[in-house]
Specification:
With about 375 residues, the chain is α/β, with parallel strands linked by helices. The protein has 11 helices and 15 strands. Helix 3 links the parallel strand 3 and strand 4. Helix 2 packs parallel to helix 3 and helix 6 runs antiparallel to helix 7. One of its GO terms (cellular component) is cytoplasm.
């Protein structure tokens, strides 16, 4: 197995194009073509996790949090980040992070937390805009079906639960081939008119290269006319947080006890708003930016982490904020990634780290 066999699969699971602008997901250390015999899955990368990889002979560590977040200007071992990276390089261990891109997909970190809490009817809490593109191209009518089928096969044309979606309109295209051209129709040096169809399809940004390659392969013209537009439409399958419902209503007290038992650690929460709760919003990691979305979606409880003292006042008796801790809210990501890699590569040795990387301890 090569490093890139694993990382390309993980990229398909949560495309890097879906990560936040401040993030640093992807292969951070190592040779993508290096051969490896095993990998370790962890929430964080620390020196202890790298030493664990050395002991197990693992050539790759897949983590949720990137060890390199900001720029590294030097490697002198003055802090744990530099020491961890240096240790990994010294022993030829690749480091790969799958962070906010895994947060932002509907089968990612938040979906796993919803599963642990037993939530049903889940959906993205704050769908993202700006990651859809519209491709417009012009095809001779005789080849429209061939080109459109190629675009669909490459991942274009999905709108919600529908696929193979396109729009076509007929018109007349004109062109004149210059010296040395070999036009599909017409004669070089003479203006030609051709009945063409304008074809429009929507695609997610991460499929752009694949869809364009399919267009150029299937289109009969030497020079393909095409336009690509960024759309502000929301992609409902991609975004921050999730929201779902409990199988049946629970008292607020019972739900908080269920939450604590499910994730461990300590739950910090605001005072109950009502006697019972049913609709639960979640965001693994630091999710305070989604409070307004949770309230607008009429969630009874917002489960997240990293709330500061004064931010708890923002509940304003409209919702219960339940802070379960950063590690606790994302710990199940290890299971998620392990199961995905093991299912895809059942004969490849994959291990869950035995190191508890949570830097916070509780009495």
């Amino acid at each position: 197995m090569r490093v890139k066999d694993i990382t390309q699969f993980l990229d398909s699971m949560a495309p890097p194009a879906y990560q936040e602008s401040y993030d640093n997901s992807g292969l951070l250390v190592g040779d993508a073509n290096a051969e490896i015999e095993s990998a370790i899955i962890s929430l964080d990368v620390t020196e202890e996790v790298v030493r664990e990889a050395i002991e197990k002979g693992a050539g790759l560590i897949v983590s949720h949090h990137p060890i390199i977040f900001g720029g590294l200007k030097r490697l002198t071992g003055k802090n744990y980040v530099e020491r961890t990276v240096m240790l990994a390089i010294r022993h030829g261990i690749a480091l790969y992070a799958i962070h906010t891109n895994l947060d932002n997909v509907s089968h990612g970190v938040n979906a796993k937390l919803c599963e642990v809490l037993g939530l049903e009817n889940t959906r993205i809490l704050a769908p993202k805009a700006g990651i859809l593109r519209k491709l417009v191209t012009f095809v001779p009518k005789s080849h429209t079906e061939e080109v459109v089928s190629a675009l669909f096969a490459a991942g274009a044309g999905h709108v919600g639960a529908y696929d193979q979606c396109s729009f076509r309109s007929e018109g007349v295209g004109t062109f004149r081939g210059g010296e040395g051209t070999d036009p599909f129709v017409g004669v070089p040096g003479e203006r030609h008119e051709e009945i063409e169809e304008r074809v429009e399809v929507i695609l997610p940004v991460d499929r752009t290269k694949t869809v364009l390659a399919a267009l150029f392969e299937a289109h009969p013209y030497e020079e393909v006319a095409w336009d690509l537009f960024q759309l502000e439409n929301e992609l409902l399958e991609v975004g921050s947080g999730m929201i779902g419902t409990l199988p049946k209503e629970m008292s607020t007290e019972a739900f908080l006890a269920h939450l604590k038992k499910s994730v461990g650690g300590v739950v910090r929460f605001t005072r109950p708003v009502s006697d019972t709760v049913k609709t639960i919003a979640v965001c693994g990691g630091s999710g305070s930016f989604l409070l307004k979305n949770a309230i607008a979606a009429k969630a009874d409880v917002f489960v997240t982490a990293d709330y500061k003292y004064h931010q708890f006042f923002d509940a304003e008796d409209r919702i219960v904020i339940a802070d379960i801790g950063h590690f606790e809210s994302e710990q199940f990501t290890i299971d998620l990634l392990y199961d995905a890699v093991h299912e895809k590569f059942p004969n490849f040795a994959t291990f869950q780290t035995a190191v508890k990387t949570n830097p916070i301890l509780y009495l």
